[in-house]
Design brief:
Structural class: mainly alpha
Shape: elongated
Number of helices: 6
Oligomer: single chain
CATH class of the domain at 47-124: Mainly Alpha
Largest sheet: 3 strands, antiparallel
Strand order of the largest sheet: 1-3-2
Helix content: 55-70%
Length: 124
């Protein structure tokens, strides 16, 4: 069956212009997949906490381990995942390694998500 022959909706009116307009303006599947991976990475409480902390201040691995009360090894693992998605970057100062957000866009994403989360009514 062709897509046009598949019954997708019980409604009989479909705005084909709108559907085609949206279809043409959607990002490619590769970009959608990349966005999905970014949101998956940020869906972990520890990783999101790290990103939130780094939005406030550049921190070393030891500082982050202390802040989240987990091992340096566990923090390092989370930082590797965040680095692989280009969410955080690092700089070396002697033997110390300091982490910060990769760019302003990451801070913007977090700020917008926080604004949205604060608008959601709390359920008791």
């Amino acid at each position: 069956m062709k897509n046009s022959q598949i019954k997708l909706c019980s409604e009989t009116i479909i705005d084909r212009y709108k559907v085609e307009e949206v279809r043409q303006n959607l990002p490619p599947l590769s970009e959608i997949s990349s966005l999905t991976e970014t949101f998956k990475i940020l869906g972990d409480p520890t990783r999101l906490g790290i990103v939130l902390a780094l939005a406030k201040e550049e921190l070393c691995v030891c500082d982050l381990a202390t802040l989240f009360e987990i091992s340096v090894s566990a923090i390092s693992h989370q930082l590797r995942l965040l680095r692989s998605m280009k969410l955080v970057k690092y700089r070396k100062a002697g033997k110390m390694v300091y982490y910060s957000l990769d760019d302003k866009h990451i801070e913007d994403i977090i700020r917008l998500a926080q604004t949205h989360a604060r608008e959601i009514p709390k359920v008791d």
